Amino acid sequence: xxxxxxxxxxxxxxxxxRPHTGPLRKDERYDTVHFDGGTYxxxxxxxxxxxxxxxxxxxxxxxxxRQARFNEVWVQGSRWVAVAAPESxxxxxxxxxxVLAGVSxxxxxxxxxxxxxxxxxxVNLRGALxxxxxxxxxxxxxxxxxxxxxxDVSFPGSTLDEVRFGTARLRQVDLRGAVRLGLPDGPxxxxxALISTTQLFELAPQFxxxxxxxxxxx
Length: 218
Hints:
Helices cover 6% and strands 41% of the residues. The strands form three sheets. Strands 1, 2, 3, 5, 6, 8, 9, 11, 13, 15, 17 and 19 form a twelve-stranded parallel beta sheet that branches. An eight-stranded parallel beta sheet has the order 4-7-10-12-14-16-18-21, with no helix packed on it. Strands 20-22 form a two-stranded parallel sheet. The protein has one helix and 22 strands. It starts with 17 loop residues before the first strand and ends in an 8-residue tail after the last helix.
């Protein structure tokens, strides 16, 4: 994982950043660009690539980012609402204090990505590939990981509420640090995950139900 950066000036490419003006454009290449403040609404930016870029205090609403590429991108204090980013690629990226709501990112690939103090709500990650991803102190609500592949993914300090793993394939997925596991599908899709003894006890009724076991005291 890349080191954690707290502000723009900490970024190794921070001194190279140029302020962005104008709308987002389809298939555009953005290299060392700083998107600072402002709102981008219903703009087509499919196929755009962002290399060593920073987003601070930005709101994206209804923006189209299909097959967009985000490499060494840093996002802080931003809001992404109803953004369509299926089949996008994220690598060596950090998202801090950012809200992702109603985002479609199915079929996307996330590698070496850190999300810290973020709120994710109604995010579609079906069929996505996540490798070396950390959700730290995040709220994940109504998240769909169905058919996704998760490898070396952890959730320290995070709350999982209505998170569906469904037919996901997990490998070394560490759920032990999660504050809460709200899994409407129960144990389905948890093969390959690490959970704590306390979490096992909390999930025991769902495990029993999945196995057809009735638990009843006298």
